[in-house]
Design goal:
This is FIST C-domain domain-containing protein. It comes from Legionella antarctica. The protein is of the alpha+beta class. The protein has helices spanning about 35-40, 105-120, 140-145, 150-160, and strands at about 1-5, 10-20, 25-30, 30-35, 60, 70-75, 75-80, 85, 95-100, 135-140, 165-175, 175-180, 185-190, 190-195. The protein folds into 2 domains: about 1-5 and about 105-195; about 10-100, Elongation Factor Tu (Ef-tu), domain 3 (Beta Barrel). The chain is built from 4 helices and 14 strands. The strands form 3 sheets. Strands 2, 3, 4, 5, 6, 7, 8 and 9 form an 8-stranded antiparallel beta sheet that branches. A 4-stranded mixed beta sheet has the order 1-14-10-11. It has a two-stranded antiparallel ribbon with strand order 12-13. A hairpin with a 2-residue loop joins strand 3 (about 25-30) and strand 4.
Length: about 200
């Protein structure tokens, strides 16, 4: 069995620290109101929040670990009164955070990368690397909205990256679960997450 999860989002802007949060509500980044910072970055697009937030999710990472992994969090709601953002997953206090933006080609390429990684991870020897597999592909509903007519390119890219003769199935979700290489399972947003199986 193999697994992988890839996002394909471009990170931009400085690294900021989560200085006030509770569960999935983000109140402050570097002691500044989170909604105010988002509005500064988004400019005119900020009037369309939270819908425009699909194009600008947040990357969060634990500064206490050496692992260069990050989680993607999608905006669900904004609260003007508290100047906070509500995300589709927890935002732990003390984590690092950076804004992200959509790059449509990278989103599709990342689906292919997830497929390759999931297949490679389960190859136990040189002979098994080209065995046909069964893949369960779970993509975020937000990605489907973003990609629009290019949605089929994402699913085509995952199948083409699997060994010849492989089969895939899948669905869209509002959150994906997958371990990192460390083995710790995490909730992801806006990713293509794939689990592969093969039988000897």
């Amino acid at each position: 069995m193999g697994h992988a999860s890839q996002g394909g989002w471009d990170i931009f802007g400085p690294v900021r620290r989560v200085t006030r949060s509770k569960a999935n509500a983000l109140y402050e980044l570097d002691y500044k109101p989170a909604l105010q910072l988002y509005k500064e970055y988004l400019g005119e697009k900020s009037v369309d929040l939270p819908a425009s937030g699909l194009l600008y999710p947040l990357s969060i990472s634990d500064p206490s670990t050496d692992e260069r992994t990050h989680l993607v969090r999608t905006i669900l709601h904004v609260d003007e009164q508290t100047q906070s953002l509500i995300f589709a997953g927890d935002i732990p206090l003390g984590f690092n955070a950076q804004l992200m933006r959509a790059n449509f080609d990278r989103l599709i390429d990342s689906a292919s990368e997830a497929s390759l990684l999931a297949s490679k991870e389960m190859s136990v020897d040189e002979n098994s690397k080209d065995f046909p597999v069964f893949a369960i592909c779970i993509s975020c509903f937000g990605r489907r909205l973003l990609l629009g007519e290019r949605t089929e390119e994402e699913t085509d890219s995952t199948l083409k990256s699997l060994p010849q003769g492989s089969t895939q199935t899948g669905f869209y979700s509002y959150g994906e679960l997958s371990p990192f290489t460390s083995g710790k399972c995490e909730l992801h947003n806006q990713t293509m997450t794939i689990t592969t199986f093969y039988e000897r």
